[in-house]
Each structure stands twice: as C-alpha cells, then as structure tokens.
Amino acid sequence: MRRERILLDPQKARAKRVLVSDSPSAFFPAAVGVGDRILGALADGPDYPSRIARELKVYHQTVYYHIRKLETAGLVRKVGTKFIRGGSADLYTLATDGYAVEFDVKGESFQGLAPASRSRALARFLQEFVSSGELDGWLVVGSPEPHGPNKTEGRDAHYAVQLGFAMGHFVRLPSTFPVKLDVELRNEKLERSNLLVIGGPRTNLTSAELNSWLPVRFSEENFWGSIVDGDGRQYVAEWDALIVKARNPWNSEKVCVLAAGLSGAATKAAIIGMTNYSDQVFEKYQDGDFALVLRGTDLDSDGKVDNVEVLHRAKP
Questions:
Q1: How many CB atoms lie within 10 A of CB 21?
Q2: Is residue 158 part of a domain?
Q3: Same domain for 201 and 266?
Q4: Number of domains in the chain
Q5: At 13, is the pLDDT very low, low, confident or very high (cuts 50, 70, 90)?
Q6: Quick check: 103 pLDDT over 70?
Q7: pLDDT tops 50 at residue 255
Q8: How confident is the model at residue 114 (pLDDT cuts 50, 70, 90)?
C-alpha cells in the first residue's frame, strides 16, 4: 500500500514529502532506466514530454509511454495543457519529492513535525515568500490606533500569530521583526516588497490601497460592506472573506497576498482557511494569481468560526 510520509533532515532543517510503499513493485516504472531519467529531468521543474525526449535523446513515444507508467504509480502528475499548431501538449511535474520502500520495523523516536502540520499546498502558495529558508517579505496588519480617513482601529492583528505558526514550518526565525503596521509600511516605503496583508480595508490601509487591483475585491460602497467577484456577484454575510494573490502593483516582480473578511471573525475565517484547511483551499493552485471567496462556519456551535466553505474560485 502506498502512502505519503514526511522525510526530515534535522541537520539541514529541511523536510520532504515522499511516497512510500511496503513493496518495491509499486515503483517499478521508476526503476526502469528511462523512467528514472524522466524523474531526474522533472526534478528541475515541470516540463513537456517532447522537450524531455530531446533532453534525454530518446524517441517521443518512449517518453510518453514511461510518463503514463509513472503517472499510474503516482510519481508524476499532469498540471496543464498547451495547444500548439492544432495539437495539445501536456505539462508534467513530480507528484512527490521522492519515493521509498519502507520495511516493517519500529523505527527511531523523533520529536518532529506531525505529518499533517506542514502543508505542501500552503508552501506552494507562499513560495515567493521563502528564499533559502528565510522569509522574503512582510506581514502587514492594521494599526491598533485610530488611523486612516475613517479613524478606524485594527483589531485583527492577532490572527497573524496563527499564520506565523504555519509559516514557521518553511522559514527560519527571522532576524528582523517581520510584522509591519500598515502605517509603518507606508512611512518606511516598503510597499515594493512581497506583502502578506491581513485584514480588510476598513482597518488596514494597505488592504484599501490594494483593493482596486484585485480580481476579487471589497466593494467601496457602504463602507466596504460586501465582497464582489469577477462576475459581479456580491457576498454580504458577516463571515464572508477572501484570499487573493496578485502581482504587487508597486513592483511587478513581487507579489501580494491578502487574507481579509467583512468582519474580524471573517478575517479569522480567511486565516483558518489558509492554515488549517490549506490542502482543500489551495488544491487547484499551481502558480500565479489566485482569488477565492470563502465563508466561515461554526461546526461545534460555540459561536466562533472553526471551519470554512468555499463559495467562489476565480478562474486563473
């Protein structure tokens, strides 16, 4: 039986997700010479079978044959299709960081990460914020002091703690304090960085400045009282929120991620979606822009958000 495990390297402080089985026959396609060489080529990033064939100097049909075998074994997956001169070309990538045969032994006790605590989907979504194990960017929260044209006070900055726990699985402890108030970001002229913005435009000036650039945004009518998707549908429930990733309008080489809602509880729902339910929320994310509307739910009926449901996914 095949299953996914996390492979930890304590010396390098790195973790990989590998597919393991109790039988080598599960990975037989990788043991064949061409199959192993295809996996090596895809380790450099997604690619098309025709280009892999040219790189390996083998027939196209041979590469297609082995890729189908590797896909059945769960070692590669198709991530897109491009139409060229009346035909289609499929783009493939590694489906896992590696594969292994696991023997039925007790193993060594190790106080490491729980298997579900490090989301591959979240890591991919926030990949621009990680550079050689260091955080590349700023977490931006609304100032708790009255500020902005409406003299509002940010009261949802503490939700950044949950996101910090999740990001701690991918980056080392920053040497520079990584959280900036919205007013500090502007004063220190740091807008041209990667920005992870928490909180809606009522309380976060950076969120308000980003809003007009986003594919799914807050309506500027009625004091940011609704969320509007690309088709013009409005979402007005108290626990409605959005998660958006887009190019930084002040520097196109950087990205901005906004997690915010129509209320403080809705912003909490966005953070819960990103961290606790990231595999579901980001299951279709590959690269580039992303926009999603979700709604917080209360499964245990204690009056607090503890789950989310996806209402809308913008087309890439």
A1: 17
A2: yes
A3: yes
A4: 2
A5: low
A6: yes
A7: yes
A8: very low
d(CA 118, CA 245): 20
For residue 174, being part of any structural domain is answered with: yes
91 and 141 in a single domain? The answer is no
Q: What is the separation, in whole angstroms, between the first and last Cα of the chain? A: 35
Structural domain including 90 reads 3-101
Residue 199 CB neighbour total at 10 angstroms = 28
**pLDDT score, position 106:** 77
Considering the domain architecture, whether residues 216 and 77 belong to the same structural domain is answered as no
Q: How far apart are CA 184 and CA 168, in angstroms?
A: 23
- Residue the block writes with tokens 């991620």: 257
Structure pTM? Answer: 0.67
Handedness of CA 302, 305, 308, 312 (dihedral sign): positive
From 43, 70, 101, give the residue that closes a domain. 101
To which H or E segment does residue 146 belong? none
- Distant-in-sequence, close-in-space partners of 131: CB < 8 Å, separation ≥ 6: none
The whole-number pLDDT of residue 293 equals 97
Distance (Å) of CA 137 to CA 13, 195, 293, 296: 21, 6, 24, 27
The 10s digit of each residue's pLDDT in 214-247 is 999 999 888 899 999 999 999 999 999 999 999 9
Q: What is the DSSP letter of 174?
A: P
In the numeric block, which tokens belong to residue 58?
Answer: 């083998």
Among 184, 162, 141, which Cα is nearest to 271's? 162
Q: Specify if 111 maps to a domain.
A: no
Side by side, the strands of the sheet bearing 217-218 are: 217-218, 227-228, 234-235
